[in-house]
Amino acid sequence: MTDFEEYIRQSEPGRQQKAYAWRTAIGLQAVDGLKPSEYLKDTARKHIEGEIDIDEAQKLIKSYYQSKSVRTLENDLFANHSWYFRNALVRANYRNAVKGVEPDMKYLVRFFRNLLLGENNELRNRYMVIDAPEKWKESVDNATPTSSPTSSTNQLYTSNTNIRKLVSAIGETPKSIREILELLNLKDRKNLLESYVMPAQANGFVTLLYPDKPRHPRQKYVLTVKGLALLSSISKQ
């Protein structure tokens, strides 16, 4: 996950968005102790730096996992749903101000919740189509997993109300302390840091956008991959 921090800290918005999406996609594997392959990381770096486009990245990932001699759930999920994975990365980066469309991480999160938590979220490309016909749109039932998560869910869960509120407030977009105070309707900065931010950081749900420079003038808080998974769980309740 730290491989992408430098890209995220860069000022170029395009690279920041790509790096954030790839960090989420690859970092979610670490939640369950899976080690992301160097091949996948290298493919991500090439896409972020513009050496290959998203379609080329999708083809490289698919061919890589299809070439594996030992079949595993991880290999099969990437090989069988590489097109979904490709489109999920696009939706995690796509913004259209005219249509009011913002980057959406939920499709990537669903992919990795299937992989890590044993869920059966439907991975259908048509759900990601903007302004799709009504018959293509996702129903409420399909948005809910059809099987119970495995014990790995415990790594993503917290009963701490303040952490859950903070995760919901930050969402998928980096937020400053001032923005978080407003969203939570709080006025005491010290209380926010001690009762919300510090516990969330200690439990791995939240991190600094510029971790090496705590006093950065544009410092904000972002959800970690663990935080994004918790956000997904909260939104389904």
Brief rundown of the structure:
The chain has 237 residues and is mainly α. The protein has helices at 5-9, 13-27, 38-48, 54-66, 73-80, 82-93, 106-117, 161-170, 177-183, 189-202, 225-235, and strands at residues 206-208, 221-223. The longest helix is centred in the N-terminal third of the chain and has 15 residues, at 13-27.
Element order: H for helix, E for strand: HHHHHHHHHHEEH
Are there runs of 5+ residues with pLDDT below 50, and where? 28-34, 140-153
Please list the strands of the largest sheet in the order they lie side by side: 1-2
Give the tally of structural domains: 2
Give the overall shape, derived from the CA principal axes. globular
Number of helices: 11
Helical content, roughly? 40-55%
Q: Give the CA-CA distance, first to last residue.
A: 28 Å
> Roughly what is the average pLDDT, rounded to an integer?
73
Query: What's the β-strand tally?
Result: 2
* Rounded radius of gyration (Å): 18 Å
Please give the largest β-sheet: 2 strands, antiparallel
Provide the β-strand percentage band.
under 5%
Structural class: mainly alpha
Organism: Phocaeicola barnesiae
Pfam family, one: Fic-like_C
InterPro entries: Fic-like_C, VbhA-like, VbhA_sf
Protein name: Antitoxin VbhA family protein
